[in-house]
């Protein structure tokens, strides 16, 4: 490995943050192996390359996963909106809505006081 290659590898490790720590641990383990110094240097160099490749692959996959998740969320929202447009929710027919309708009819003069009172009692009674 040339000095330029080593500098490039060290810069890539530094950019990846935790990869630098992982490489330090791996290099410490390699340093304890019962092999020659040249073998240790070779293993350390190769392991640094492997750590960088794994780290950069993880970053690329993370970016891809984030893009895929965003695309999936967008597609889900479009699907929900299309479904809502094609299948509008039925009108709410709860007690409050029914009483409001009766009150509007009474206020408009379409129900007299007695009709309004009877209809209101039926709505409140649940029939």
Explain the overall architecture:
By secondary structure, this protein is an all-alpha fold. It has 2 domains: 3-86; 95-125. Helices cover 82% and strands 0% of the residues. It is built from 5 helices and no strands. The protein has helices at 3-16, 18-31, 37-86, 95-107, 113-125. Helix 1 packs across helix 3. The longest helix is centred in the middle third of the chain and has 50 residues, at 37-86. It is rod-shaped and about 105 Å long. The mean pLDDT is 81.
Pattern of helices and strands: HHHHH
Low-confidence stretches: none
Given the helix and strand composition, which structural class is it?
Answer: mainly alpha
Per DSSP E runs of 2 or more residues, the count of β-strands stands at: 0
Tally of helical segments: 5
Largest sheet: none
Count of individual domains: 2
Q: Quick one: overall form?
A: rod-shaped
Q: What is the gyration radius calculated from CA atoms?
A: 36 Å
Q: pLDDT average, as an integer?
A: 81
Beta-strand content:
under 5%
End-to-end separation in angstroms reads: 88 Å
Helix content: over 70%
């Amino acid at each position: 490995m040339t000095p330029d290659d080593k500098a490039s590898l060290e810069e890539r490790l530094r950019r990846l943050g935790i990869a630098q720590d992982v490489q330090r641990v791996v290099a410490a383990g390699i340093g304890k192996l019962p092999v020659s110094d040249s073998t240790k240097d070779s293993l350390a160099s190769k392991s640094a390359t492997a750590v960088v490749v794994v780290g950069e692959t993880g970053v690329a996959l993370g970016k891809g996963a984030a893009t895929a998740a965003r695309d999936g969320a967008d597609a889900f929202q479009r699907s929900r909106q299309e479904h809502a447009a094609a299948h509008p929710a039925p009108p709410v027919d709860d007690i409050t809505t029914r009483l409001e309708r009766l009150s509007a009819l009474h206020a408009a003069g379409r129900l007299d006081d007695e009709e309004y009172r009877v209809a209101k009692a039926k709505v409140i009674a649940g029939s």
